[in-house]
Design goal:
Strand order of the largest sheet of chain B: 1-2-3
Number of helices of chain A: 21
Largest sheet of chain B: 3 strands, antiparallel
Radius of gyration of chain A: 36 Å
Largest sheet of chain A: 7 strands, mixed
Radius of gyration of chain B: 22 Å
Shape of chain A: elongated
Number of domains of chain B: 3
Order of helices and strands of chain B: HHHEEEHHHHHHHHHHHH
Distance between the termini of chain B: 21 Å
Oligomer: heterodimer
Shape of chain B: globular
CATH class of the largest domain in chain A: Alpha Beta
Number of helices of chain B: 15
Largest interface: A-B, 43 and 52 residues
Amino acid sequence: MFNKSDNESVQNRNWNVLVYMTAVFVLFVILLFRLYSLQHTHYDENFQRSENNRLRRVELVAERGFIYDRNGEVLVRNRPSYQIALQALNLPRKKAGRDSVFNALLHIVDKDGKRMFDSLSLDTAFQRTRWIKNRPIRILEDASPEQVSIIEEHSEKLPGVVTLIESRRAYPYGTLASHVLGYTSEISEEQLKLPEYENYSQGDRIGQKGLEQFYDQEFRGTNGVKVVEVNASGREISQVKGVDSKAPIPGLHLVSTIDLKLQKVAEEAIPDTARGALVAIDPRNGEILAMVSSPRLDPNIFSLKKRERNKGWAQVALDSLRPLTNRAISGTYPPASVFKLVTAGAGLEYGVLSEFKHYPKSCTGGFQYGARYQKCWGSHGNLNVVNAIRLSCDVFFYQAGLDIDMTRINEFGRRFGLGEKPLGVDIPGEKAGWLPDSVSFNLRNKRLGWRWARGLILNLSIGQGQIVTPLQQAVLVGSLATNKGVYRPHFMKELRDSEGNVVRKYEPEIVRSGKMKESTHRILMAAMDSVVNHPGGTGKRGRVPDIRVGAKTGSGEWKKGEKTHAWYAAVAPLDNPEIAVAVIMEAAGGGGAVSGPIARKVLMAYFGKEDKK
Amino acid sequence: MSSGRFLDKSLKVDWFFLFLTLCLMVCGVLLVYSATNNEKVVFYETFWFRQIIYFVCGSAIAAGIVFLRLDWLKRMVVPMYVAALILLVVVLFFAGDVVKGAGRWIDLGIFKLQPSEFAKIAYLLTISYWLSRHPVSLFKLKSFVVPMLLFIVPFALVLKQPDLSTALVFIAVTYVGFFFAGLTLTDMFLLASPLLSVLFSHSQTTMFQVLWGLLICAVVFSLVRRRLPKILTVLFLVVNIFAGYASSMAWNMLQPHQQKRVNTFLDPMSDPLGDGYQVLQSLTAIGSGGLKGKGFGHGTQTNLAFLPEEHTDFIFSVLGEQFGFMGCAVILVLYFLFLWRATSTCKLFSDPFITLITMGASTIFLFHILVNIAMTIGLMPVTGLPLPFLSYGGSFALTCMVLVGAILCMRFQGHRQ
């Protein structure tokens, strides 16, 4: 018992209880002050933080537009591609938890018993989750449906591992027109720095090469955004309907000028082992109906997973045949004898030649010019211009070239699309040609110390020494045949939105005058006709029954001792030209023999003819 | 106190106290319901339903306790204390279940016994019984020997589990017990002064150094006024100054990563995705409630599971988010009235045993309330102390009801004497 008297001790005790309750009161007031400061003074920032916790902006990637051929066949579409990724915010925060996810991933095997992830790349991904919090980090690219279902089975053990669906490009016809269509890949660091890619961000898949690159803006569409409510483990609970939401606008579909049937025939006509190119164009408006460059590449490899993509890429990039080059627009070749049409046209246009003009020196297998003896490929005797073209006689054109002079020849050639100015086709990578004259020759070869000499005209007048692309060659013969101007060659026919409404139509555009005198035209047409349809014509292998095909062959010399580049440029029907085809087969031999049959197959297909066997 | 019928001192049962308890229990069940109602299970497996069961069982036990006579209680002291010690030893060696790295449970099949909860009650009874018969005084140091022995054994065993927060409850009960068993307010200040010294000298800013200087002055002043035995005077001074310097010296001797660990414990916000995550989310939840709250069932932090352990340790954040400052204030007022009614019980009687039991029980409540709320609003490090009546949890709900029963018993039995 207490020592003091009962009354005193009770008073003392009651005083102590009062002190106790006062202390409680003070402490509770402190708590209330703190609560007031949190819930009133700092309400806004706390509320904002809870909203940020709750809401997440999700970018909705717009579907990339398709590419169709001129008849509505799909050339390029999209396929779903599954990505397994780590979502940093949803991973366990404790190290032990992360390790267990890591180990669980490491021990997952596919149905063949092989591990799906390798520890090195997985470790790198886990390292990256420590500073990349706001977007998923991919650990398995382009996973197969089986792999996705295996991951889903284990999802209990794998917090923070998510499956994302991306849309990737699919090229159902594989290598068909691969150089025209191009491919897509993730935007590179270098591209991100360029001004034209300023509204792109890292990780975007963009078109590389071909139509994919040229019309990338149109294919992309506009990405949308939605605001979703998420829980602590990052699972979407619901979409928040608010002002910030924006549906994605799918990209535009491109209807190309390519004719799938024709393209297929052309692809089959040129074997993949050969180096060569083919361009088929409608000279009336510049629509490109088919374009082949061989060897081809399969654009599908660029939408595969990284390891396979790198393998495919190495194979393609290191190939000595250079399959990445689109030879039809980037391959530069001597025009060879096809250029004789230009020489002849210039001669007729400037009155140097006429239908019946014969040169005094007949072809006996060569031509003596000063100290030099220039050979011809045969002995053709004395010829007029039509027959000179039919037989492709060099001696006639040596003399004609010297008569006409290079400036005039080049002027005529430039009128029909040859020369240093690209034609402006709507895929990137087009190379320009070169038509040398005394000035540009000296300029170009200054470094080598070569000077222009009049003897060079001999070579140039038969097309040795100039540079053209197969596209220019096709445009040349096409516009010579129409005599109505050179239209810009193009692939885009129209752009359509996702509902099929035409958004933009391509308006044919004349880029070179492409006109000559009616008499010149008539004689050139007669000459091109004779190449195919008259006895002894060099292009007789390109004959198509019932159709008047005009053509010119060429065998370009490019290296001593090698076979010549085989040119064949044809246009049909001559009375009302609808299609011009240029074929080059690198180092394959004579133009008429090698490339002629290839052009013929395309023309046969275009006119719906079949060989009777 | 007041002469209202409800608060009539002659009544054997404090109906207002009972009413407050009931209010708090109802609030608790509602909060547990709102924190966990998005889990789709049959209703008898839900947390809120189980909480009701715990409260009903607890009330039955409390009703039983009311009828225990005081002399029976006093006779139960030794067996209870021994049993508590045995259980604490048993749980140390045969931990049935390891929750959060600490084995604190003994699995008895039907329910899991938490010996530290039982030990709280047994220790309260024991220390109250001893102190009621043997008051303490700083002038008679021998009077502290037995209470310190009684205290140190269960304290060490609980600390060994390790369960720091429950061990701190033992300190609080002992401290308040000394206050009602003879020590003066000045003595209480002197006893607490070494702790304050450590706190003030931890941070070496000018303000804290000035505060620490003031503290030392106050200690000297108190010592002069109390005229304690010389040995004690010297001891208090030395301990205070040593605590002041040693803590900063010890701090400088720590390795940087150890310092960081201590800092994270003291200031969880420095690691918002690690240890600070809980506190950050809790602050966000409470703060985003505003003055009026988001409304019952509309707590986004809670419903979307951003709050960790929302139905147990962080139930106060659920309250703050859904009912805002108003709701928090109402609950604090309820707690204050509850403590006022509890402490008032002892004023009716002169028996020091009754005083010590009621004040000890109130202290257990108060300590849990303060530490838990301070933790959820970021004033204190995160410890695992639940909030009385509001947090989900069977063992602690039973403890609370036993303590309520004890307070009621004091009044009921006091009037019978």
